[in-house]
Design goal:
This protein has 99 residues and is mainly α. The chain has helices at residues 3-27, 34-59, 82-93; strands spanning 61-65, 74-78. The protein is built from three helices and two strands; from the N terminus they run ααββα. A hairpin with an 8-residue loop joins strand 1 (61-65) and strand 2. The protein is elongated and about 65 Å long. The structure holds zinc ion.
């Protein structure tokens, strides 16, 4: 994972935490038991962090296909560095049996 990807992941986690705290703060004006506010804040935060992680993965996912047009072999790499992308790209076209 590159430093830029780590930064975007941290930004997503901070935004998710801020949204979860805002939801908990808004719910605190209602007569709810404290444990329900805590559980709601934690579950909201975890759900939003997972969503942010998924979005970050989608943005940083790259699929390499075999150069043979009749072949459907493909390799997918998530959050790889430049060397890993180069290696996966070479592997996509160097598999033993085209299918
Ligand atoms: Zn192939």
């Amino acid at each position: 994972m590159t430093p830029t990807q780590k930064r975007w992941r941290l930004v997503g986690q901070l935004v998710a935490a801020a949204v979860a705290l805002t939801v908990a703060w808004q719910l605190s004006s209602y007569p709810l038991p404290p444990w329900l506010l805590v559980v709601t804040a934690i579950s909201s935060s975890l759900g939003l962090m997972e969503a942010a992680q998924r979005i970050t993965d989608v943005v940083h996912t790259r699929t390499y296909r075999c150069p043979d047009p009749a072949c459907d072999h493909r390799v997918t790499l998530i959050n790889g560095g430049a060397d890993e992308h180069r290696r996966y790209q070479e592997e996509a076209g160097a598999h033993p049996y085209h299918h």
